[in-house]
Design a protein that fits this description.
Elements: E1 4-5, E2 30-31, E3 40-46, E4 52-60, E5 67-70, E6 87-91, H1 100-103, E7 105-111, E8 131-135, H2 143-147, E9 151-152, E10 162-167, E11 180-185, E12 202-204, E13 217-223, E14 228-238, E15 244-247, H3 253-261
């Protein structure tokens, strides 16, 4: 199996959190019971060193039926400010490393918010750590027509109900080949709980998802029959010690989604 190359982490969440009273504990990452999930998948590209780069993502409802939501740091970083030359999204990925081109949908365009300016470093841009990717069609069909899609909601995120953070963890003890998830109560970070870059982010504690889940969907109202849910955030950063933060979509993201889905 090709070696996996993971994008540089945006920032460790632990450096941007302050002391927070322990809330309801989230479950440890576990294989997603409804895997493979057709609307959730892996972004794969060949890096310059020959290894495969990867992030996670999810199909979202759009007029063109061809949009994936992921994290901006999967697309542009200070070390690599331009997207990879050829990226594929594989819906329902499950041990498909050898077939990602055959089973995947090629990314035609990358859409990151104007605020995601990585020329000055990562700290101040974390509130903009989301992106939408436009996929090519295959055989005259869109990815959404073929696999379905998740609904997208925008801020403010109600602090009620539960959320599942899904993705393909590739750092030990995982291998990036199967879909895993953590679940817990929705917890929006406010003043006194985090430093400015992570305010408004969603926090899950006791979640040992590792690198590779970047850009993975945070879903509520999952419907096993439809294989989709409501996307409220994408995986942004993690502490490496059990705290992970999802980045919700601000109102300004509507325009970006419309651009990707037009």
């Amino acid at each position: 199996m090709p070696l996996v190359r993971l994008p540089a982490a945006a920032l460790a969440a632990a450096a941007l959190l302050v002391a927070v009273p322990a809330g309801p504990a989230a479950a440890q990452a576990a294989p997603w019971p409804d895997a493979p999930a057709a609307t959730v998948g892996k972004l794969v590209w060949e890096a310059e060193d020959g290894r495969l780069g990867q992030c996670s993502g999810a199909l979202v409802d759009a007029p063109n039926g061809s949009v994936v939501a992921t994290a901006a740091h999967c697309v542009r970083t200070p070390q690599e400010p331009q997207p990879p030359s050829e990226v594929w999204f594989v819906p329902g990925y499950h041990r498909d490393a050898a077939d990602y081109r055959d089973k995947g949908w090629r990314v035609a365009a990358f859409h990151t918010p104007d605020g995601w300016d990585v020329s000055g470093g990562m700290t101040d841009v974390l509130p903009h750590d989301y992106a939408f990717l436009t996929l090519e069609r295959r055989g005259g069909r869109s990815a959404q027509e073929t696999h379905g899609a998740n609904r997208v909601t925008f801020e403010p995120v109600p602090e009620e109900g539960r959320v599942a953070a899904l993705g393909y963890p590739a750092a030990a003890p995982y291998d990036g080949e199967t879909l895993h998830a953590c679940e817990g109560e929705i917890d929006v970070l406010t003043e006194g709980e985090a430093q400015t870059p992570n305010l408004g982010g969603l926090l899950l504690r006791d979640c040992n998802l590792t690198a590779g889940t970047s850009g993975g969907p945070w879903l509520r109202d999952w419907d096993p029959a439809a294989g989709s849910g409501t996307l409220i955030a994408v995986m942004s950063v993690g502490s490496g010690h059990g705290d992970v933060i999802g980045r919700p979509f601000p109102e300004a993201a509507r325009e970006l989604l419309a651009r990707a889905g037009g």
